[in-house]
Amino acid sequence: MIISPFNPLFFLGQYRSYGEGSPFTQVFSPQDHILIQVIRTIHETPFSCSVHNAESGTLQHTVYCRSHQINSTDIVDCYTLPSLANGIYLLTLDENISEPFMITDESRILEKTVLIKYSPANNSLRRDVVAFIGEERVFFSFRIPGGFKDNGWSFSVENDQFTTDMADIIELYGMESTQKTLTIGLSYGVPIWYGQLLNRILVCKYVFIDGIRFTRYQSSVPEKQQTMDGVNSFVFTQKLQEIRYLRS
Fold first, then answer.
1. How far apart are CA 26 and CA 100, in angstroms?
2. Percent helix, strand, coil in the chain (nearest 5)?
3. How far apart are CA 159 and CA 148, in angstroms?
4. CA atoms within 13 A of residue 21's CA, in its CB half-sphere
5. How many whole angstroms separate alpha carbon 205 and alpha carbon 22?
6. Which residues of the chain have pLDDT under 70?
7. Are 147 and 182 within 8 A, CB to CB?
8. Rg of the chain over all Cα atoms, to the nearest angstrom
9. Which of 229, 199, 213, 225 is nearest to 117 (CA)?
10. Predicted TM-score (pTM) of this structure
11. Number of other CB atoms surrounding residue 9 within 10 Å
12. If we measure between CA atoms, which residue out of 244, 185, 239 comes closest to residue 211?
């Protein structure tokens, strides 16, 4: 069984941390499409999946998968979380438990977040995620606290010029571009796995942030800054370039 590392929820697994954990709880809107993929062989049975109230531990929903055979040996199980009322929840896949996540429709919280939708190029590059089910492309949704600050914009140009015998400069062609720095964590920071997932998301062919398509700028990776010594909470920045005219 492979719980896809592209899933927008983090499962604890063998992860161990030292120090105080981040105070941040992952946030989703009730309208967000929360998809979980598990890849298994045809000889394995699907995980049981359920949503529990994080505070009381009570069962809220049993989530059933839609299974699709992707080749002669492997199957992908897709778990789509149902509409949930405002609250804090845990997702369980058999004995695997996710980090707590919040569902909220409060605008004062959601306006400080951006929604990232992403999909890998195809099914052949990796064994731990499925981009196509039949002819349909699959998108994941991941909501992050933060966004693009005005002082994170930078500009560049690719052009060719020549100088005439009268010392006039003639522009032969020019193509401008704008780079933007995505900041994740605001002032209080987020857990370390946010940076790991962002770096992984940016290997996808299709990445949309609030409906606008972006790509990693050159070979940049998320840069982290710890908010306080001894607290596993970080602010991440990532330089991106907008791909114009292509929107979700």
1. 7
2. 5, 50, 40
3. 27
4. 10
5. 30
6. 13-21, 245-248
7. yes
8. 21
9. 213
10. 0.87
11. 21
12. 244
Q: Which residue has the tokens 């405002």?
A: 86
List, as own/partner pairs, every contact residues 155-158 make where C-beta atoms lie below 8 angstroms and the sequence separation is at least 24, other chains included: 155/179
Exposure class string for 103-132: b at 16+ Cβ within 10 A, else e: bbeeeeebeebbbbbbbbeebeebeebbbb
Instruction: Tell me the pLDDT tens digit for each residue of 25-81.
Output: 899 999 999 999 999 999 999 999 999 999 888 999 999 999 999 888 999 999 999
Distance CA 89, CA 84 (A): 9
φ, ψ for residue 135, nearest 5 deg: -100, 0
Tokens 């989530």, located at residue: 63
Q: Nearest 5°: phi and psi at 231?
A: -115, 125
CA neighbor of 145 nearest in space, from 220, 211, 198: 198
Tokens of 85: 């009322």
Closest alpha carbon to 79 in 63, 92, 95, 68:
63
- 3-state SS assignment for residue 159: strand
Which token pair is 79? 């778990």
* Token output for 57: 């531990």
